[in-house]
Design a protein that fits this description.
single chain, about 325 residues, seven-stranded parallel sheet, three-stranded antiparallel sheet, 10 strands, about 10% strand, binds zinc ion
Length: about 325
């Protein structure tokens, strides 16, 4: 069966885990639950335990990194902090994001290249992929295979795959003054402070502001709509989802903590003139209840397969298996 043009893929951390990236729920334990923790990370862990998770002793195993970032944002907004304390808080957040982005660098997320190339090969030009992942697995596979792709509003739109990275991407930077999003190429993937150590300074091409920020932020209620490109991507995602005939969720469980994402799917399902067929490739743990709730009129098929298992069931080399 050939996949129609209005097939949408929605990818989460379970998509990238076969390449070595951590699942959302594993990020914090990968960072903190290891031997030989550096003094800075030990201090960060103690601070987070004490200030954000005092009633949750096992937070490293239970919460995802987006929740920590959201709580840091709330802390910044609702605590009366002096300049020194804000600086300390920003430094702690920066350390957390630096170690997190290190986990996702292309040289570390490089297992199973054939799996991702096979997936990329099964996609059709003009398809939309919505992803909450920051890593560059797909971009790398597309480049290796010569498959055209683009990020809307950045670079030239082409008839290739449309990639919507709703939480940002390792290779994108934004201007804190005017909000303009920059793409310098796949080789720029580190935090701006790490780049500065290599004497690489990123300036805004629109307003000449010195010092761009990394677009690897989970959109919290405070931040999400400040960056026009990101706002535009969320809107395109809504349009695409509301016109979709089939939606494949791969390794993405619509976490209830991500209110904006839950609203996006909910709103798209209500806008749709005809409900899409929904496939869940979220592994055996996910019961699919949340998806069934959102796409109430659709037929939700929970395969209970992981991405790898689902790809293994591929029988026809020209299509992606159902
Ligand atoms: Zn600017």
């Amino acid at each position: 069966m050939v996949i129609s043009m209005s097939t949408i893929y929605v990818l989460g951390s379970g998509f990238s885990s076969a390449a070595g990236a951590p699942l959302s729920r594993q990020v914090l334990s990968r960072i903190f639950c290891q031997d030989n923790l550096t003094p800075q990370l030990t201090e960060l862990q103690q601070w987070l335990s004490c200030h954000l998770f005092s009633r949750r002793p096992r937070w490293q195993e239970e919460v995802n990194i987006e929740e920590v970032l959201t709580r840091l944002d709330l802390y910044r907004h609702y605590q009366a902090l002096n300049a020194e304390e804000i600086k300390d808080l920003n430094n702690r957040e920066e350390l957390l994001l630096t170690v997190f982005t290190q986990l996702l660098q292309p040289e570390r997320v490089n297992l199973n290249p054939n799996l991702y190339r096979r997936f990329a090969n099964g996609l059709k030009p003009g398809m939309t992929i919505i992803t909450y992942n920051y890593d560059l697995l797909l971009e790398k596979s597309f480049t290796q295979l010569g498959i055209p792709y683009y990020y809307p509003q950045l670079g030239d739109p082409n008839d290739g795959i449309r990639l919507l990275k709703l939480h940002g991407s390792l290779n994108l930077y934004f201007c804190p003054k005017c909000g303009y999003v920059h793409y310098f190429g796949q080789e720029y993937t580190h935090r701006p402070k790490v780049l500065v150590q290599k004497e690489i300074l990123l300036n805004c091409i629109k307003c000449s502001e010195n010092g761009l920020e990394h677009l690897t932020i989970a959109p919290t209620l405070f931040k999400s709509y400040e960056i026009p490109t990101l706002r535009n991507w969320w809107f395109i995602a809504l349009q695409a989802l509301s016109g979709a005939t089939e939606v494949f969720f791969i390794g993405y469980s619509v976490p209830r903590s991500d209110l904006l994402a839950a609203q996006l799917f909910d709103f798209a399902a209500r806008l749709a003139s005809k409900p899409p067929k929904v496939w869940l490739i979220n592994g055996p743990r996910n019961d699919g209840d949340h998806h069934v709730q959102i796409f109430e009129d659709s037929k939700v098929v929970n395969t209970r397969l992981t991405f790898e298992q689902w790809m293994e069931r591929k029988t026809d080399t020209s299509t992606i298996p159902r």
